[in-house]
Amino acid sequence: MNKTKANGISIAYERCGKGTTPLVLLHGYPLDHTIWEQVVPLLENDFDLILPDLRGFGESDAPAIPYGMADLAADIAALLGGLNIWKAVIAGHSMGGYVALAFARAYPQRTLGMGLVASQVLADTPEKKAGRYQEASDILAHGVREVAEGMSSKLTADSVLQARLRTLILRQRPEGLAGALQAMADRPDSSALLPGSDFPVVLIHGLADGLIPVERARSVKAAVPDARLTEITAIGHMPMMEAPDMTAQALRYLKV
User: What whole-number distance in Å separates Cα of residue 164 and Cα of residue 141?
Assistant: First the structure.
């Protein structure tokens, strides 16, 4: 992987593609950039693809916590700046969607488009926030194995993918998971962000998503009539792995 310094830490990333539109693909929790591997060949003729490992994940540094979504967004802005890319389409899966929203909030003039894949604009409820903080504490005390065993079946009903995701989660560091959980817990509500935006929005959601219900995407579509919503039957929380063709097709709408 390539590595660059961003905000005092090392951010790892892959870059590929023959297109002229920069598209940043942000992974969700508790994963890394490799979740996009099946989508990359389908998009590389259309986009200049940048696939980072968010801070704390994959081969990127895991700095001291706490930090917030704005910090993760600043990492992406610094990464793009180092690549001499001023504007980009930002697409994020689940937590990666929260980072994409934070990027658009902080850098609206640098946002060419937005893709939310199995994500949402709402903030956590107080109960959910407390749960994330408790889970972060548990992970720091006991490691990531319990997360790997418990979460893989929540991400998808596909047993083969569950095994791949379990292995992927086990590669992550406790500090990275804990930092991300706290950042997600503290993120602001973004319901008012997209209705006033002047960039295209794509929403991709599985109808069998048990972590973030499809109604969250439908509510964004209702608030942003020009947004493109792709609902995928019998697909869970991992559209890019469960239905890469449909995911790629939907993301192509963001080509400029």
Answer: 25
SS3 state at 79:
helix
Q: Does residue 213 have a cis bond before it (omega within 30 degrees)?
A: no
Pairing of strands 47-52, 111-117: unpaired
What is the spatial distance between Cα 217 and Cα 209, in angstroms, rounded to a whole number? 11
What pLDDT sits at residue 111? 98
pLDDT of residue 43: 98
Domain boundaries along the sequence of the chain = 2-124+187-254
Instruction: Please answer whether residues 230 and 250 qualify as being in contact, where contact means their C-beta atoms are separated by less than 8 angstroms.
Output: yes
Contact 116, 95 (CB under 8 A): no
What is the residue-wise DSSP string for 193-231?
TTTT--S-EEEEEETT-SSS-HHHHHHHHHH-TT-EEEE
Show the DSSP H helices in the chain as ranges. Answer: 40-43, 69-82, 95-106, 126-142, 145-155, 159-170, 174-185, 214-223, 239-242, 244-251
The CATH T-level fold of domain 2-124+187-254 is Rossmann fold (3.40.50)
Kindly state the average pLDDT of the residues 61-83.
97
Q: Can you give the pLDDT at residue 234?
A: 97
Whether the Cβ atoms of residue 174 and residue 141 lie closer than 8 Å to each other: no
Give, as one character, the DSSP assignment of residue 188.
P
249 Cβ contact list (under 8 Å, min separation 6):
230
Closest among 181, 73, 206, 178 to 124, alpha carbons compared: 181
Asked if the model's pLDDT at residue 98 lies above 90, the reply is yes
